[in-house]
């Protein structure tokens, strides 16, 4: 019980419950089965991007190009699918994952092997991918009418399985798989090792460029999948879509306990953080005149979460130091 009370996830769950109680009284219409499923479905892209971003943040890096990658992959899938409507949807899922992985490989090569600063590098590729999205689309927008013939394409987002949209099942599966990968595989533990201490990781024989490279590749693959699902779920595609989504993904990661300096964070915390962000976003959208505060609120969440993470880490260090001093 003592460990449970000290757990950060316990605090996050408490915050989630408080938010739900407040929302219940202010927006009772939010608490129908249809509304809750709609809330999760419309915010699941943020969760997917948070999974992708976490892979890079854990190494001590950051990728601010993921929203542009999403737009580039989503537009590419839409353009090709509209030209070849008879191709099964699973083909576009695989195409999106591969194209996204290639985008991530570019970032991984520049950061891992050419030792560029992640923030500056991904700032540059952010504009590159956004520009490619414009080139591929030719400035054209796609709306629901163009997606009417793409039933197979949209199935992986709006199709139903056991009463829930498939896009939710995809997100849940990815959360579980990513959590198992990070916690129970040597490749996942190397990501934590790089973010915790590059010097110690090097002494242990871990090759930092290789780990950095494949963390960006995984990030890109998940982002690419999110790009395809974005267009399939919302039935809209244009080169400027998902602008600013990278900040929401980072906010979810930090809120979920992922250290912005790397080496610390759990997938279950990110899942709870995604739920909190979904409730906040949906809750604000249902209150007249409050939607203009959404970005400001997200910025405040990032600042508060970073501060909490900092003080938590400092408290843990002081506690460890006291324990060591008591043993001497």
TrEMBL record:
Keyword Transmembrane tagged: yes
Protein's UniProt keywords contain Transmembrane helix: yes
Location within or outside the cell: Cell membrane
GO CC list: plasma membrane
The entry's keywords: Cell membrane, Membrane, Transmembrane, Transmembrane helix
Membrane-spanning parts: 12-33, 45-62, 93-115, 127-144, 156-182, 211-230, 236-258, 270-290, 296-312
Lineage top rank: taxon: Bacteria
A Gene Ontology molecular function term of the record: transmembrane transporter activity
Name of this chain's protein: Ribose transport system permease protein RbsC
Species: Blautia obeum
Topology in the lipid bilayer: Multi-pass membrane protein
InterPro entries attached to this UniProt entry: ABC_transp_permease
Main localisation: membrane
